[in-house]
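Notebook entry, structure prediction.
Reason for the run: the old model in the group folder had no record of what sequence produced it. Starting over properly, with the input documented here first.
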Amino acid sequence: MRNGGQIMVAGIGSPHGDDQAGWEMAREIERRKYSHVSVKLARTPADLLDWIDPGMDLLICDACQGAGEPGSIHQWEWPCGQLNEIRWSGTHQMSLTGVLALAEQLGRLPQHVRIWAIELQSNHSGESLSAAVQAGVFAAVETMCEDINYTVSQGEIEHA
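New structure, fully documented this time:
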């Protein structure tokens, strides 16, 4: 992420089972109350088109399938060809990669976009996350917050 700038965290998901992973990551970051972080929850990647701001770094949180073991944490910088091989959770009419490509064509994509995903254990429609995905959420948030804290400290050094 850019040093010292504003960050938008977008959690993509639903209220169903492991598909909540993106929302839970975003909510956990929001609980930390960073002054330079704005958090939004989306049901589909297309919702991002209403919120993204080219002047803010974008950190996307979602659940995925096909990238590893259940609960495993994945991180990509946009653009990344590997993202086309990943299946994202939910029944999105427009894929995450399609939304990011469109935002780029419209000149609305931030310069720095990072995607964090947790591998689903199942597509069950229960109310709670599986234990493996819950553990992945907490581990991912700790790493994301380390990056956010580093970004803040670097920005303070550069502005001193």
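Summary: The radius of gyration is 15 Å.
The old model has been moved to the deprecated folder.
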